[in-house]
Design goal:
mainly alpha, Rossmann fold, globular, 13 helices
């Protein structure tokens, strides 16, 4: 927490201060890469507004400040209140993907009136290949300079802290190649424990291949006259994430150049004082 305070001083970015403007109705608590964006579109098509997705906090770094704070509360064993969640998702009727899924237990307690969708993929090996492909592709396209640039722009910094702490260290336990499958299995085992005893009117286990039928029956909605969304293309996901992550890179480059310029000027001044001032 003290470190976060220091970060906020060095990289000032005002966090979101939303309040609950509509009831939370649906908590989709499955892991990323389980067709969460398709599910987001499906829920939007069925009339739920707004549906929070993992792209949201990357696109608006102010959300990242909130999620980092929530993660600090969770990992330090402090309670997370409904109002704490409302500050970042108070405008939403549904949530999907990370970082929301990482707060499954806390969200279920905070919104006991909401229905729960456990979205998953049957083939864990295929799921893991998707995770590795998406993360490794994003890392390659971001390039070696990105980890340096994040230190020279407040928005990029907070997105990076969020992704490092919550996703890389938290979700993937520090290595998505080695530990993602164990994390996946543990997460769904925990969801079963959390929802044990809840009726079918409260909990739905759902995969994208199930389509509109089970989803609409569970939510009490008419089946739309269109195909169930298919938004799981790897290239589109990576492009969207990178567009968001790199949108401030030009300003970060400028700040980096300014910092280097000041450092060189400072070093030159010090060298002159030490070697020529007394002569």
């Amino acid at each position: 927490m003290a470190l976060d305070t220091l970060y906020q001083w060095v990289y000032p970015l005002k966090p979101q201060e939303r309040s609950r403007t509509k009831p939370m109705q649906v908590l989709c608590l499955g892991f990323p890469r389980t067709a969460t964006d398709s599910l987001r579109v499906a829920l939007s098509t069925l009339g739920f507004s707004y549906v929070y997705h993992g792209f949201d906090h990357i696109a608006d770094a102010r959300d990242c400040v909130n999620w980092v704070h929530l993660w600090s509360l969770k990992t330090s064993g402090q309670p997370i209140k409904r109002a704490d969640f409302d500050r970042v998702i108070g405008h939403c009727e549904a949530v999907t993907d990370a970082p929301a899924c990482m707060f499954a237990e806390e969200l279920i307690k905070a919104y006991p009136e909401a229905k729960i969708i456990i979205n998953y993929r049957e083939d864990v090996e295929a799921w893991h290949r998707s995770v590795v492909n998406s993360w490794s592709t994003a890392e390659k396209r971001a390039g070696w300079i990105h980890p340096l640039l994040v230190w020279f722009h407040a928005k990029m910094f907070w997105v990076n802290v969020n992704e490092h702490r919550l996703t890389y260290a938290g979700l993937w336990r520090g290595n998505y190649r080695k530990h993602a499958k164990a994390s996946y299995r543990d997460h769904y085992d925990r969801l079963k424990e959390l929802t044990k005893g809840m009726g079918r009117d409260r909990v739905l286990e759902f995969k994208a291949q199930d389509g509109w039928g089970p989803l609409c029956k569970f939510l009490g909605k008419e089946i739309p006259d269109e195909e169930y969304p298919n938004r799981n293309a790897l290239e589109a996901v990576v492009a969207k994430v990178l567009d968001s992550l790199m949108q401030d890179s030009a300003e970060a480059w400028r700040n980096l150049a300014l910092t280097l310029g000041l450092a060189v000027a400072g070093a030159g001044t010090l060298f002159w004082k030490l070697n020529y001032k007394s002569t």
